[in-house]
Batch of 2 targets.
Target 1
Amino acid sequence: MHAIDPLILSQTRTSFSLLVLIPILAARGGWKRMRLPRRDLLQCLVLGILGVAISNYFYYVAIQKTSVAIAIIVQYTAPVWVLLFVVARRQQRLTLQRIAAVAVAITGTALTTGMIGGKSAPHVDAYGFFAAVLASFSFAFYNVGGHQILLHHDRWRVLVWTLFSASVFWLVLNPPWRLAGSAYTLSQWTFLLAFSMISVLGAFSFYFLGLQYLEPSRAIIASCLEPVFSILLAAAVLGEGLRPVQFVGIVFVLSAIVIVQLPGRDSASKEAVVVDPIE
């Protein structure tokens, strides 16, 4: 297919998912299933724009300008940013284990993007790398801001309002008449619909099903396999090469994510920060 703009990909991903999710929730519980207190509703609307919409867009820009491997690895440093934030807010203590996780993640990102690794290191598009970093910050913001809401409200209720906010945001930036005039083919619109169902509604359905059997800390460690699968699929389907030094960087970043999630000596204090990707 011809190229699809990252904005269109981000816009249709949230909008199509919202159009399918609202009737499902309405049939199961009506308006009461979707209602939120005003303060929480406002927070969901902010998360939808600064979290879901911005994270999605810059993530796809990073893929377009660099590669799947670089984009997803940089984005998956988001748990490190979350950790630094909660330490600054004195919600967690800065331990040797957490310092090691930050150092390993930064080293892994540098190896993966080719910033270090010898003369054969590939050139990385500066804008693409910057977009990946912005996606990582936005992803971290979504998880920090949404943590308290998810403690008190049904996840699907929070999801529907974040998707609503992101969809309205994109409609303002890219109105329906402009979207209709984008001249995409039927096969492209079919892909966009299928992509929305699989990557948003399908992924979340399976992840929440897993949460019924796994505690969140174990579920999030299992979800760290996503970068591995993405990079392997990109190599197999898109023909993206993976040099040995990049493989080492991937191992470093994934190790950092696991280290962050490992229980420390102060685990009894229940300092839980859920970092659940929704890119």
Note: DSSP finds twelve helices and no strands in the chain.
Target 2
Amino acid sequence: MEKVRSQFPILRQYLYANTPVYGPLYDDLLEWRQEHDLDFLLKASGMRDTTLQIISEARATVASFMGCKRENVALLNNFSTGLNMLLEGLDKRQKVLLLENDYPSVDWPFASRGFSIFYAQIDENLEDSIRSAIVKNGIEILALSIVQWQNGIKIDLDFLKELKKEHPQLLIIADGTQFCGTTNFDFESSGVDVLGASAYKWLLSGYGNGFMLFKDQVEERCKLRTTGFNAANAIPEKKDNIRFARRFEPGHLSSLNIGSMKFSMEYMSEIGKEGIDEQNKMLSEKAKNEFTALGLLPKMVSNRKEHSTIFNIKGDDALFRHLNENDVICAQRGDGIRLGFHFYNTESDIDNIVDILKTAL
């Protein structure tokens, strides 16, 4: 773990618990980015073939890392753009189930297009609420974040698989921005039909990159007209034969940004996705136990069987300042203070934060 931690300069100065806002850059990625831009500086248009190769290899890397068919991977600048493009191809008369207080970029695109929207409450009985609302309201689309941005509540992925079996025609769209990179996940065997994510948080890729993954049957439900020269691989003869995922890529992509995502997925694969999964589960359990013991977590978090590595603890402006003054980097969200831990964090980080909290409580 020390070898991993040494890659992140931010960890030498601070107790970094702010990955839910931004995943820190690390030495090896910075070196790759500098070499990439130096090549552009020296070669200019001579980099064209290299950039195309980076994009192509990135598609294969995302497919392998996330467990998706390569042809069903769309490379994006961010999740929000991808979701808005997707919704343009869906029938607006369909009934949609969203979660109350989910991330605005999940909610607003549906609301702005006039879908018939229903809501399920986020609490310790989240899965029961979703199942009940689907049956009661004849829901056709379920859209949600796998991990909630404010409090870290994580949907039961086995529940989504069961839900898909119970309602085969239900289209499940998931935002994985606060999830992808935290665990070993296989998209193809999951209950999710569409999974999108921005990669600047837990995938440690910097701004300006992301992806959407699709099951084969999604194309039957979504009729997109999005197009552009890049979607046809710059071959005019292919303009009428663009595969579904490439319709999300009408224009040029940044080889620096998409290449950074490729680099980070390869880096995390070298560390080991199973190891990252185990480390994050350990951090989640420890943080949950410690914060629960201090009475800082709401029951809807402490009562759930499984949780993410994001926690929103009770705390006011004074406590937030106290944490900052003691070199804890975190964020205020809602009525509390949000802390998030990733594989480069340690049990000692949590112990130190708990000790700092105790001096103020």
Note: DSSP finds 13 helices and twelve strands in the chain.
